[in-house]
Amino acid sequence: MTSPSSSGTSPTVSKGTKTKREAKLTNFFASKTVKKLKADDQSVQKNTQNSNEVLEHKIPANSESAASKVLESEKEQAILESFDKDSLVYRTMGHDWLIHLSKEVKKPYFNEIIKFVNNELSNSKRIYPPIDEIFSWSVFTKFENVKIVILGQDPYFNPGQAHGLAFSVKKGVPPPPSLKNIYAAIKNSYPGAFSSSTGSNKNNAALLKSGFLKGWADQGVLMLNSTLTVEEKKPNSHKDVGWETFTDAVISLLNTKSTNLVFLLWGSFAQKKADKIIDPKKHLVLKSVHPSPLSAHRGFLQCNHFKLANDYLAKHNKATIDWEGL
């Protein structure tokens, strides 16, 4: 009997079954292929990373912001160029304000106001403040710098006083009674204010003899009258000219574009005007009677508005107002 191992016939290998040698060869080449694919993938990732680094180097992260600023600047310049260079608003209004109020001052009602004022002057009427100072509130206080808004009614109607800032008078002119009461209220809020021994000005006591409030305006106090012109010796003579519509637009602009402002509303007139516009959730609104001698004794002198305003500014990380810094 012949044994299977000596028959001379090779063992049968089923189809699909690999010999050890074939398996080793397959694993060898497969391993090479995987390594090559990994190497290629790493190369692609590295090249992609390098490309991104090049792009980041060529295109700064703030390039979009810079481009936006350029476009905004060009837009603002185009707005200014749309005005006649000899027009009253272009010559006398702060250009930062004019850009924001450009649509408003091109409305028919505003043109009628300017025509009215010019006609009054042509008819030898004395109008205050002088026509080139009507918008001085926008020159002394830049739009972006506004922190506090003091709303008045209409300009002083006596000669040589009004210069476009509510409650303020021209340099060298003694303070009128209402402004004297404002100073008194400040002294009640800050004992020792306007004395020669306190504050940054060694002659602070002398400040009480001046009613020129440009120093407040420079610090961000916007002193805005509701009506911007008046005829000499005739208080409220221009209240129906249209100025209130314009100053409503100014207040609305501040309410919308700014945050954490302080509005000082003294008297029922200012309160009724502003209450319909100001959002008390965005800003601090402080109310009191008017500083006029007729009403100041009914609470204005003890209103503490000047300290409350500064406390609010400090709370919102804004520089406070030096009320002695006239």
List the helices and strands and how they pair.
Elements: H1 20-58, H2 63-81, H3 88-92, H4 95-100, H5 102-105, H6 108-122, E1 127-128, H7 136-140, E2 148-152, H8 177-189, H9 204-207, H10 214-219, E3 221-225, E4 230-231, H11 243-257, E5 262-266, H12 268-275, E6 284-288, H13 305-315
Parallel strand pairs: 2-3, 2-5, 5-6
Antiparallel strand pairs: 1-4
CATH topology name, in short, is: Uracil-DNA Glycosylase, subunit E
Gross geometry: globular
Q: Major sheet: order of its strands?
A: 3-2-5-6
Order of helices and strands: HHHHHHEHEHHHEEHEHEH
The N- and C-terminal alpha carbons lie at a distance of 131 Å
Helix content: 40-55%
The major pleated sheet works out as: 4 strands, parallel
Low-confidence stretches: 1-18, 33-39, 50-59
What is the name of the CATH architecture?
A: 3-Layer(aba) Sandwich
- Number of spatially distinct domains: 1
Structural class assignment: alpha/beta
Beta strand %: 5-15%
- Count of DSSP-assigned helices: 13
Overall pLDDT, averaged?
85
CATH homologous superfamily name? Uracil-DNA glycosylase-like domain
By DSSP, the count of extended strands is: 6
CA-based gyration radius: 38 Å
- CATH class reads Alpha Beta
Protein name: Uracil-DNA glycosylase
Active site: 154 (proton acceptor)
Enzyme class: hydrolase
EC number: 3.2.2.27
Question: How would you describe this protein?
Answer:
This protein has 326 residues and is of the alpha/beta class. It has 13 helices and six strands. It has a four-stranded parallel beta sheet, with helices on both faces. The longest helix is centred in the first third of the chain and has 39 residues, at 20-58.
